[in-house]
Amino acid sequence: MSEQTVWTDVDLTAERLKALRHQVWQANMDLQRHNLVTFTWGNVSGIDRKSGLVVIKPSGVEYSDLSAANMVIVDLQGRIVEGDMNPSSDTATHLELYRQYPDIGGIVHTHSPQATAWAQAGRAIPALGTTHADYFYGQIDCTRALSDKEIAEDYELNTGKVIVETIGDGDAMAAPGILVKEHAPFTWGKDPHQAVHNAVVVEVVAGMALQTLQINSGVSSINPSLLDKHYLRKHGANAYYGQTKK
Amino acid sequence: MSEQTVWTDVDLTAERLKALRHQVWQANMDLQRHNLVTFTWGNVSGIDRKSGLVVIKPSGVEYSDLSAANMVIVDLQGRIVEGDMNPSSDTATHLELYRQYPDIGGIVHTHSPQATAWAQAGRAIPALGTTHADYFYGQIDCTRALSDKEIAEDYELNTGKVIVETIGDGDAMAAPGILVKEHAPFTWGKDPHQAVHNAVVVEVVAGMALQTLQINSGVSSINPSLLDKHYLRKHGANAYYGQTKK
Amino acid sequence: MSEQTVWTDVDLTAERLKALRHQVWQANMDLQRHNLVTFTWGNVSGIDRKSGLVVIKPSGVEYSDLSAANMVIVDLQGRIVEGDMNPSSDTATHLELYRQYPDIGGIVHTHSPQATAWAQAGRAIPALGTTHADYFYGQIDCTRALSDKEIAEDYELNTGKVIVETIGDGDAMAAPGILVKEHAPFTWGKDPHQAVHNAVVVEVVAGMALQTLQINSGVSSINPSLLDKHYLRKHGANAYYGQTKK
Amino acid sequence: MSEQTVWTDVDLTAERLKALRHQVWQANMDLQRHNLVTFTWGNVSGIDRKSGLVVIKPSGVEYSDLSAANMVIVDLQGRIVEGDMNPSSDTATHLELYRQYPDIGGIVHTHSPQATAWAQAGRAIPALGTTHADYFYGQIDCTRALSDKEIAEDYELNTGKVIVETIGDGDAMAAPGILVKEHAPFTWGKDPHQAVHNAVVVEVVAGMALQTLQINSGVSSINPSLLDKHYLRKHGANAYYGQTKK
């Protein structure tokens, strides 16, 4: 084209949302590829921070029927902005996390079996080795149970609130996942792809942790120096794992 | 065709049975796709309530040899109406459930390993989290053992009867599956597809429940309010999960 | 061909051995398909009872390099009759079983993990449910440990002998498999295909049995009436499972 | 070519390194094929003893992006000789083992889940059966924990040193793998392919050993005579397993 393209804000937002739809759809499909979901028991969302709009999986749709086109777009108050289908029934949980933690760019919820077992047991997953320490700077917390009132009214919103309450003064990005008691894990990251990555990590370390306790029920948590070493060689200013710092 | 097609009752029944043959064959193949069966250790049936005829897998035939055409059709008294092969050896169990519960449209029996372990242990699978509560409105019961007499005479019919006895005044559709002690699970649903779906659920929650108890042997069942919330957001008049209620 | 073919005994034996080579090769490949082997840790053999010749997998050859042509043929004394490679290092164990039990037509040895765990634990797998009872008429025995002398001299032959000793007066075909202590399972059947089938059964019931004990450590063995019922509905004069009796 | 090719030492080294690049790349891909790695949590290296150069996987690169061409070549002091990417963050551990044990030709590090559980538990994997004895002449040791100082300074080098300390006067090739406490397994072999093979063995026997203890918590280690028999029928002067000795 010889004419100069003038990009308006509206155009730019539309472009970003189009890309995000594709990322969120891809991340949902990746849940299945990583064997984290049975049937439709999982959902991924991503946020466009500039517009404050969230792209999320529609509720109860089979993975084979998902496409970038049928992802639902909602605003941070949960109003549907684009899409013909209901958004995930867990949308209110996702939105609470996006509202509270500006660094979160993507969120995943699954019922992956080994992490779900820890959530059902109401136990945090202790940091027992470097696999865990490479991603989580300490244990993977488990929330308290919701009260009857919290369940009866705005259940999904309250699920988000109890996650926020559990994180408390902690750094949400340094422990990018949590177990909701009697329920299942939620994970997050800077984008939907990283949130899925962390969902895999939670499932793997959940399984390893149970086996570790079965081998040695008296095992103690990882040496804090080793936790520091592994977390910080992958994260933060002096990270040296991978190719980015070369 | 320019001529008007006149559908007789006989034609309509034949059409429905043709469709049901295909559904039951597909559901049997789905057992394999979901890794619920070893060899031929599973069977699915479906009923056409208008004619009272049941389509069921033939006995001991390998999955690779199954087709819609070789499904067997029996009436509710177990008489073969169509088919050259023996129906599943568990046919009498299926028929007893169809006779007792008019809402059941499909039945599945498998020896899926984790659910079978609970059946062998003679223990109900407790409702420990929302994965369970999304499908079963309470624990997944385990029957009593059959008596020597019940085993010796009409074993398969008595297997159906002990399932009915265990359900008692319960709502068969609100807990669409059961463990037969020293044997394995049976599940059901409004159609064969849903019965298979519930067979997957039983296998998954069986595995999660054992792991949960291994992490925390003192865990208690899910908060009844949370059980209500999850079961009722997917089932009943006010369900809001998925796309149907929009 | 217009001329009449005259089959000599030699021709007939060659034809039968050719077919058996193919069966034994196929059965070896099936071990891999059923996820029973890591690397080359498994072997299948079959016997031609008329000639007394045994076809067996060569030792330590990768599954991708196996073919019907490179199966080794040995006589019941272990002398190589055909083949350029060493037969399985466990050949002497197979031969002892063929010599002692004329009904055995095929033998399988694997290190399938769940059955091997029971063998390493030195425990028989108890009959805890109908999955087990459909194939094994009682527990799956575990041999005693071999003595130092038995290990030092003719180890593989003595492995066969301790299996025979453990079976004692029992019916080898009614419990078509055994665990060799500190080692792994051997199974057998009327032909190589059935021996592989039984190897799968042993692996599956081994896993189920451990899980059953983890759920209920005080569980007792299956009611003998139910064991009878399930074993006999698949085996013996009055069997009614499958299509053969119709 | 009609002219005589004159191979200089430089040419020969280049040829060997080219072949080694391919072997190391292939061995890295095999980790994935054997289900030993999640994401990029594993690495393989190989050494060319004549030149003292080591080929190793680049750090944090996805398996789908690996190629023989992007393997990194370092010398035994860790200086990059060829390659545009950072070598594995665990390179210093590999190099320490190559410096100490001249028979080692390939090294593997993974976080395979069952072996990692034993490492996290800080327990050696006992030799409980012949599967283990076929490859490891005794238990698979677990190192002591590193001190805070060892973690803070030259962590990866000290990981190598604590492995060497644990092996002590032992024969590194007779127990070709070890667990690093709170971390994960390292294995080795005469070449990268064999190191991967041993990584699979460690994962399989780790899983079997836990199950064995769950079945019989009082089990004792394998009879030393049987350990000898199985190890020595595959290794050493009188080995008779496989085809090489015929």
Automatic annotation (TrEMBL), chains A, B, C, D:
Q: What is its EC number?
A: 5.1.3.4
The domain of life is Bacteria
| Annotated GO CC locations | cytosol
Query: What cofactor is this protein dependent on?
Result: Zn(2+)
- Record-annotated Class II aldolase/adducin N-terminal domain positions: 22-210
User: Which EC class heads this enzyme's classification?
Assistant: isomerase
GO molecular function terms listed in the Swiss-Prot or TrEMBL record? aldehyde-lyase activity; L-ribulose-phosphate 4-epimerase activity; metal ion binding
Q: Which UniProt keywords apply?
A: Carbohydrate metabolism, Isomerase, Metal-binding, Zinc
Gene3D superfamilies with a match to the protein in the record: Class II aldolase/adducin N-terminal domain (3.40.225.10)
Q: What GO terms in the biological process aspect are recorded for it?
A: pentose catabolic process
rRNA-binding listed as a keyword: no
PANTHER family linked: FUCULOSE PHOSPHATE ALDOLASE (PTHR22789), L-RIBULOSE-5-PHOSPHATE 4-EPIMERASE SGBE (PTHR22789:SF8)
Family classification: Belongs to the aldolase class II family. AraD/FucA subfamily.
What is the recorded name of this protein?
A: L-ribulose-5-phosphate 4-epimerase
User: What species is given as this protein's source?
Assistant: Vibrio toranzoniae
The uppermost taxa in this organism's lineage are: Bacteria, Pseudomonadati, Pseudomonadota, Gammaproteobacteria, Vibrionales
